[in-house]
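By way of example, we now present a protein record of this kind:
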Amino acid sequence: MSNDARIVETLAGVTTATITTILLKKGLRNVWMRGTRPLRPDQPRLVGRAFTLRFVPAREDLATPESWSSPTSTRAAIEAMPEGCIAVVDAMGVTDAGIFGDILCARMAKKGVAALVTDGVVRDLSGVLGTGLPVWCQGAAAPPSVAGLTFVGWQQPIACGGVAVFPDDVVVADADGAVLIPAALIDTVLELAPEQERFESWIMDEVERGAALPGLYPPNAENKARYEASKK
């Protein structure tokens, strides 16, 4: 199994809430991308390497419909996206100009892009939903991107929802939003996350049986011993 396949298989069963807890214990507090809400309530949890795209404020001589044909365009960036990546777009939190519409999202879906994550919005909402591409964003707006933004490049460090994202970092997105795992910490998260999920599942079972939280969550020595015994 390739390393990326192992990452996807392992983290598909780990919530973003668990990942943020693990990263908090490693000193990282700012990994949840603000404004990244699932466009559909039934979107599955998705995992992939970040493919970054960056917008800056609109400048009238650059942010024009003609720019869509430029070599530095969202169209060109989409053609560079590898299968299985998660497109992470820095839209500066702008919510009155849609960065992608149905045609661009359809092309991303056709290329096998796993998801689109942005702190901005999309346009052509019904069409975007029809493409089947999972999207995490702040909603929808009718105006095109050039009404408020200028596209400047891809596969460079960006800020998305107040989080620094570098190409090939790992992104996990679920009902709670999108979370970044720095590439240098992915092995640590892969080691710790499944055990954290098992432990919290055990705690939930105890709560369902009527156990009180003090001494259980977090566990005292007695409950730690009971948990370890339950694994044998």
Remarks:
- The chain has a mean pLDDT of 95.
